[in-house]
TrEMBL record:
Gene3D superfamilies: 2.30.30.100, Bira Bifunctional Protein, Domain 2 (3.30.930.10). It is an enzyme of class 6 (ligase). This is biotin--[biotin carboxyl-carrier protein] ligase. InterPro entries: aa-tRNA-synth_II/BPL/LPL, Biotin_CoA_COase_ligase, BPL_C, BPL_LPL_catalytic, Transcriptional_repressor_C. Keywords: ATP-binding, Biotin, Ligase, Nucleotide-binding. One of its GO terms (molecular function) is biotin--[biotin carboxyl-carrier protein] ligase activity. It comes from Bradyrhizobium oligotrophicum S58. SUPFAM superfamilies: C-terminal domain of transcriptional repressors (SSF50037), Class II aaRS and biotin synthetases (SSF55681).
Length: 267
C-alpha cells in the first residue's frame, strides 16, 4: 500500500510528502518551511530512523509503524500555537478509535485509548503514541509542526513509560490506513481549534478523554517532584495539580506518573 490523504484532508487542500524511509518527519517539515514552502502539508513514513520526542529523547519507528508530521504556517503567537498539541492528541485518538473499531468488526482486536498530558496517547494504560510540537518563525509566519508517532506493529522497549503497539493489542491495521484516518481527523480538530480561538472547545473534548483525571499524580520536572491530584488543565493547557494543602499548582512541563507510580515519587 501507499500513503494517501483521507477524503476530507484532500478536499481541504493538504499536500502529502511520503518517504520510504526518513530520519525525522518533523525535520523534513521544518526544512520545507525554511525553503519557503508554506503549504499545509503532511510528511509521513513507515520507517523513521532519527526521530525524537520531548527532551531530545529518541523516537525510532521500525518499518510498519507510523511517523507523521503536519505543517501549518500560522499568524499566531508561540504561546497560542503551543495549544495546538491538544488538537493533535484528539485527532490521533479519534483515528485510533476508528481503525480499532473497524479492526474489531473484522477480527475482534480492540483497545481503549486515553490522552495523557501533555502529549501522549495511552492504549489500555500503555503508551502507544508520542507527539512533539515544534515551531519556527519563517517568512510566511510561524511554522508549526505537529509530529505524531504511533506504534502500529512494534513498541520501543526502552522508554520510561511502558509502551504497546496496535499489533500487541490484536488490532490488525496498517500505517497507511491509520494515516488516512488521522489526516481526516486533523481537519476536524484543527478547524475547531481555529488558530487558538476554539481552544475552549478543544480543552473540553480533551478532558473528556484524559487519562488520570481526578487521580493521584506525580510530575517530575528537573530535580523537583510535585504530587497531588490531577484536577484539570487550564485555558493555556497547563496541568493543574491539587496538592495535599489544597493549593492548585500549575504545571507547564514534566514527566507525568499516575497511580501507584505516583505514590512512589515518580521514580
Amino acid at each position: 500500500m501507499t500513503f494517501a490523504l483521507g477524503p476530507r484532508a484532500a478536499k481541504a487542500g493538504y499536500g502529502l510528502v511520503a518517504f520510504d524511509q526518513a530520519g525525522s518527519t518533523n525535520a523534513e517539515a521544518l526544512a520545507s518551511a525554511r525553503r519557503g514552502d508554506t503549504r499545509r502539508s503532511w510528511f509521513v513514513t513507515s520507517e523513521q530512523t532519527a526521530g525524537r520526542g520531548r527532551r531530545q529523547r529518541p523516537w525510532i519507528a521500525p518499518r510498519g509503524n507510523l511517523a507523521s508530521s503536519v505543517l501549518e504556517v500560522l499568524s499566531v503567537a508561540p504561546a497560542v500555537a503551543a495549544t495546538l498539541g491538544f488538537a493533535a492528541g484528539l485527532a490521533i485518538e479519534t483515528a485510533l478509535r476508528q481503525v480499532s473499531l473497524e479492526a474489531a468488526l473484522r477480527s475482534g482486536g480492540r483497545a481503549s485509548f486515553a490522552l495523557k498530558w501533555p502529549n501522549d496517547v495511552l492504549a489500555d494504560g500503555r503508551k502507544i503514541v508520542g507527539m512533539l510540537l515544534e515551531a519556527e518563525q519563517v517568512a510566511g509566519g510561524l511554522a508549526v509542526v505537529a509530529g505524531i508517532g504511533t506504534n502500529v506493529v512494534a513498541a520501543p522497549p526502552d522508554i520510561p513509560t511502558p509502551a504497546v503497539s496496535l499489533a500487541d493489542l490484536g488490532v490488525q491495521v496498517t500505517a497507511e490506513d491509520l494515516f488516512s484516518a488521522l489526516s481526516d481527523a486533523w481537519v476536524e480538530y484543527f478547524g475547531i481549534w481555529n488558530e487558538g480561538r476554539g481552544f475552549g472547545d478543544i480543552r473540553k473534548l480533551w478532558l473528556e478523554r484524559a487519562a488520570g483525571l481526578g487521580q493521584p499524580v506525580a510530575i517530575r520536572s528537573g530535580h523537583a517532584i510535585i504530587e497531588g491530584i490531577f484536577d484539570t488543565i487550564d485555558e493555556q493547557g497547563c496541568m493543574l495539580v491539587r496538592t495535599a494543602e489544597g493549593r492548585l499548582e500549575p504545571i507547564t512541563a514534566g514527566d507525568v506518573h499516575f497511580g501507584s507510580v505516583a505514590s512512589q515519587g515518580a521514580v
